[in-house]
Design goal:
The relative contact order is 0.25. Helix content is 36%, strand content 21%. By secondary structure, it is α/β, with parallel strands linked by helices.
Length: 171
């Protein structure tokens, strides 16, 4: 069972996260994972890991899945070497961490960025079109295709320990 936290700043998450050693932050591309993760890591003096920093090949827009672009061995080694508190951010994060086999139990935060004018951030119409077969996922460039595929298959927003609803102006 997850809880929902609403706010415009990651600070409102700190009390909830303070007792956990490994904090995993996932969400749709450009939802604010990195910004929130860095702020949380800085506040706790934690080591910050971004899966984008472990990309080993240039993304191929139609062939490669995001998880296949990550140097899992390097990420796994560095996660196991870090004995203190850590914050890990990325898309498709549960799939990547399943491969990296982190040692500790983790708390998962799903960042749901909500536009003030449209009341959503993730392109729900694209998800609907993908579900109905109206859009060919091979036509969507990486990492977005992997991100959509992951959301459709795993529903990370339903599996998260915390849903952080972050508000943003629709520009």
């Amino acid at each position: 069972m997850s809880i929902t936290v609403r706010g415009e700043d990651a600070i409102c998450l700190l009390d909830i996260l303070s007792e956990h050693t490994t904090i995993c932050i996932e969400g749709h591309t450009c939802s604010g994972k990195t910004k929130a993760g860095k702020k949380i890591a800085e506040t706790f003096g934690a080591k910050f890991f971004d899966t984008d920093d472990y990309i080993i090949k240039a993304p191929n827009p139609t062939v490669e899945e995001y998880e296949g672009m990550i140097d899992i061995n390097k990420l796994s080694k560095e996660l196991h070497e870090e004995k203190g508190k850590k914050v890990i951010v990325g898309i498709c994060l549960r799939n990547i961490l399943r491969l990296a086999e982190p040692a500790e139990d983790s708390i998962f935060v799903y960042i749901k960025c909500i536009s003030r004018t449209s009341f959503q951030w993730i392109e729900e119409n694209i998800l609907d079109d993908l579900r109905e077969g109206n859009i060919d996922i091979t036509k969507i460039p990486e990492p977005h295709a992997s991100d959509y595929r992951y959301i459709l298959e795993r529903s990370p927003q339903n599996e998260a320990d915390i849903i952080f609803e972050r508000l943003e102006e629709n520009i």
